[in-house]
Write a structure and sequence with these properties.
Helices cover about 40% and strands about 20% of the residues. The protein is of the alpha/beta class and about 290 residues long. The strands form 2 sheets. It has a 7-stranded parallel β-sheet with strand order 8-7-6-11-9-12-10. α9 links the parallel β7 and β8. The relative contact order is 0.13.
Length: about 290
């Protein structure tokens, strides 16, 4: 079991400087490491393992947080992570949040090759095409996890999966399901279609209505939802690659739904239809 290091009190410490640099994308890519902040994310990171090694590498914790979340610190040690007791100033220096919660983990990249996702023959997938806001990306990933999706795909035109805001917004879901990154849109669509997955573009201007699709019973098969940019949706060339462009009906006076809300509606609609069609899916886990 790795020893607990002496309390770190200087932001100029070598370990602290190395962790702080992971707030920048180029350093994350070079080191293939990212930050997970807060008790929920660190708990999930400590429980997660890659093929050959644990995901959590290091944990920085204030003395107060280490006492409050002793179970998480213990899980981190059990996973082989080196635990550093750090001052609040050090945690604030590493953290990218305004009010840090006293725990910051350094984790190994955990994205899954797209080919492995296809080989698993997924029945429900969320494809993020041109999604640029990290908070939205993380929230859609969380929605996909909650709806029971088997995978998420981020195209090469989308935000960095390991952006600290995306990691926080996923609230630990990043560690629950396979995520492929940097996949060109055409490759994502072609690969999923060849794997027997129907491609549906979610767009407010879609010519098909989600309620009508549910009523017609077309939603029970393997499905990938393609979600576009927060401001301008999906480009015409991307919509043309899919099998259908579907809109979420607006029954009230709202102008539109934001990306994460629309994604939740679409993913849960598919999850329910698939469960009803085959009896093989439960979004409650029961």
């Amino acid at each position: 079991m790795p020893p607990v290091s002496p309390e770190l009190i200087s932001p100029r410490s070598t370990r602290v400087s190395a962790a702080r640099r992971l707030g920048k994308r180029n350093f994350r890519g070079k080191e293939r490491l990212f930050l997970a902040e807060g008790p929920q994310a660190v708990r999930e990171a400590a429980a997660h393992r890659g093929e050959d090694t644990a995901t959590l590498v290091e944990l920085f914790a204030t003395v107060e947080a280490a006492e409050r979340y002793a179970d998480i610190v213990g899980a981190a040690r059990d996973a082989g992570a080196r635990v550093h007791l750090a001052s609040e100033d050090v945690i604030a220096d590493i953290s990218t949040t305004v009010t840090p919660q006293g725990l910051v983990g350094v984790c190994r990249f955990l994205d899954t090759p797209f080919e492995e996702i296809l080989a698993a023959r997924p029945r429900l997938v969320a494809v993020l095409a041109h999604v640029r806001d990290p908070g939205n990306a993380g929230t859609v990933l969380r929605c996909a996890d909650a709806a029971g999706a088997e995978a998420v795909v981020l195209t090469d035109a989308s935000v960095d999966l390991y952006n600290p805001k995306a990691v926080r917004a996923s609230v630990g879901s990043l560690f629950h399901l396979p995520v492929a990154v940097g996949v060109p849109v055409e490759q994502a669509v072609t690969g999923l279609r060849d794997a027997g997955v129907r491609l549906l573009a979610a767009d407010g201007a879609g010519d098909r209505d989600l309620d009508d699709e549910l009523d017609k019973g077309t939603m029970g098969g393997p499905t990938a939802w393609v979600f576009g940019n927060e401001a301008w949706g999906l480009p015409e060339e991307t919509r043309a690659l899919t099998d259908a462009v579907v809109r979420v009906p607006i029954h009230g006076k709202a102008e539109s739904l934001n990306l994460a809300t629309a994604a939740a509606v679409c993913l849960y609609a598919s999850a329910r239809a698939q469960r009803a069609a085959g009896g093989c899916r439960s979004v409650t886990g029961n």
